[in-house]
Design goal:
heterodimer, A: 247 residues, Rossmann fold, 4-stranded antiparallel beta sheet, 11 helices, 39% helix, 26% strand, B: mainly alpha, two-stranded antiparallel ribbon, two-stranded antiparallel sheet, 72% helix
Chain lengths: 247, 304
């Protein structure tokens, strides 16, 4: 069988992690994780703090590197590719901690999201300001002076600037008022429905995430322990006890 | 009064040269957090390339006019930039992700390599060049003392201002400059946004070296003598300027350069030439005691 054929994933998954192990030094953060996201899906990863959710998103970008296993994006092996090439392949991330450039204006932060992709930034800016009118008000303000919630909006809007096919969102609800969270979740749903944007969402807010997502995985100590549709996972007693706080 | 005014002119012209070199230190520090100790020697290489270019041009029978100077400046910037790129590629990039002191030690090694390379290739003796930019304007005549600005001094000031204006535009207004600032503020995030961070760092070294080449050319034209060792003291002074202005700050580097140039000139004029370096470094120490981040530097505290 030719190499090209071998590189084709068994199914037409957009993103596929196969037996991925990753570690920070001697500390294993991911153990033999296999996860896949199909085109047009919203998939969520839920799990406790330190379960490896954020590590999984960063490992897709090669930092930390997958020590074993491989990562396929649209059938192409991206394991070990330089970070900027993975981004240019069509994956964007709104990362843990938001990572806004503190001494750049909101506008410059947004432009950074587009400039390596050869796309016209104008429609992206318009979309960002429609999605989050607050950002329009803060356009000329430095990123470091924004509130946590505004930074979160900016991080998401910046990730969308490159018109990615796959969006990785790390805790978009963190630090936001419930109303804003609802706004962000409905924006994600709308982008998914209207533009077919595929989303891999990491959340502590499992209840809302599972309602939004088509499918989900539960991550415990770096391993996936459960997989199912959002509704299935919501109904599982162990998920309810551990992550939903329902009684 | 007239005497002081003259010293001001002299000090500014000298300070501009320091400022141009200091920008290279501060840029590299900003983007990868290391002091590029070889940068002073890059300046020296720039001066040598200019000298060689001038010799080639005059042996070709070309008159040493403004066109020749511009040509030499551009050649020197291009070739020196190549040196700057190579130094980063050979001595610093392989050590990225290594412990913090590793590239610093490598930089000192690079400095020694460049000095010895030029010493072997060009000889250890001082290289003179006849001055080709002569004349000047008498601005004011008072108390039997004429205040004048030489054509050379005016040229240093104008060239430096033009170069710095272009450079400032590049950093603040272009996508490349934005990528450089992004790498400085959060390199991993820049990578997540598709920026080739290694390439951006390379470009930073290239620009820093080109600015040092401008400084080297001006130094050669102004003082007319160079040797393989001029990079050491000039480098230390420019590094001091960068720290004084606030390392990591571009306007700070220029301001620091001007201050060092002025302090040195005024001290030499009113006190003793022998102790001018002591005065310069003493003021650095005093400034850092009261303003540890330099004049325009910012404290490393950020909202999270």
């Amino acid at each position: 069988m030719s190499a090209a054929l071998q590189n084709r994933a068994p199914s037409a998954a957009m993103l596929r992690l196969e037996g991925v192990t990753a570690a920070y030094g001697a500390v294993e953060a991911l153990r033999d994780v296999s996860v896949h996201v199909d085109p047009g899906e919203i998939v969520t990863l839920i799990g406790a703090n330190g379960a490896g959710k954020s590590t999984l998103l960063m490992t897709i970008f090669g930092s930390p590197r997958a020590r074993t296993g491989r990562i396929l994006f649209e059938g192409r092996d991206i394991t070990g590719m330089p970070m900027h090439e993975i981004a240019r392949a069509g994956i964007a991330q709104s990362p843990e901690g938001r990572r806004i450039f503190p001494r750049m204006t909101v506008r410059e932060n947004l432009l950074m999201g587009a400039q390596s992709f050869g796309v016209d930034p104008a429609p992206g800016l318009e979309q960002a300001f429609t999605l989050f009118p607050r950002l329009k008000e803060r356009e000329a303000q430095r990123g470091g002076t924004l509130s946590g919630g505004e930074q979160q909006m900016l991080a998401i809007a910046r990730a969308l600037m490159s018109k990615p096919r796959l969006l990785l969102l790390d805790e978009p609800s963190l630090g936001l008022a419930p109303l804003v969270v609802r706004g962000i979740f409905s924006a994600i749903r709308r982008l998914n429905a209207e533009t077919g944007l595929t989303v891999l969402l990491v959340e502590q807010n499992a209840n809302q995430a599972l309602r939004l997502a088509h499918r989900g995985y539960v991550l415990v100590n770096g391993r996936t322990t459960l997989e199912g549709t959002g509704a299935e996972l919501l109904a599982r007693p162990e998920v309810r006890d551990a992550y939903l706080g329902t009684h | 009064m007239a005497y002081a005014l003259q010293q001001l002119i002299n000090g500014v012209a000298l300070g501009m040269i320091y400022g141009l070199i200091a920008v290279g230190y501060t840029m590299v520090y900003g983007i990868i957090g290391m002091i590029n100790f070889a940068h002073g020697d890059i300046f020296m290489v720039g001066a040598f390339i200019s000298l060689i270019s001038f010799v080639l041009i005059s042996s070709g029978g070309w008159a040493a006019g403004p066109g020749a100077i511009l040509l030499v400046l551009l050649v020197s910037m291009a070739v020196t930039a190549l040196y700057g790129w190579s130094v980063e590629r050979v001595a610093y990039r392989p050590l990225r992700g290594s412990f913090r002191l590793a590239p610093l030690i490598s930089a000192i090694g690079m400095s020694i390599v460049l000095q010895n390379y030029v010493q072997v290739a060009q000889g250890a003796r001082v290289k003179p060049m006849e001055s080709i930019v002569t004349g000047g304007v008498e601005l004011w005549h008072g108390n039997g003392f004429a205040v004048s600005i030489s054509t050379m001094q005016a040229m240093i000031v104008i060239v430096t201002l033009v170069v710095l204006a272009v450079f400032t535009w590049l950093v603040t207004r272009t996508p490349l400059g934005r990528a450089m600032r992004a790498c400085e503020q959060d390199r991993k995030m820049a990578g997540l946004l598709g920026i080739d961070t290694d390439r951006t760092i390379s470009i930073t070294f290239v620009i820093g070296a080109a600015l040092a080449a401008v400084a080297g050319t001006m130094y050669l034209l102004r003082y007319g003598v160079i040797d393989f060792y001029i990079g050491f003291l000039a480098g230390v002074k420019a590094f001091t300027a960068a720290v004084l202005g606030g390392i990591g700050s571009l306007p700070g580097a220029v301001l620091g350069g001007l201050l060092i140039g002025l302090i040195e000139t005024f001290w030499s004029a009113y006190f003793s030439v022998q102790y001018k370096d002591v005065a310069t470094f003493a003021i650095l120490v005093i400034t850092l005691i009261f303003m540890p981040t330099g004049l325009l530097g910012r404290a490393e505290v950020e909202k999270v």
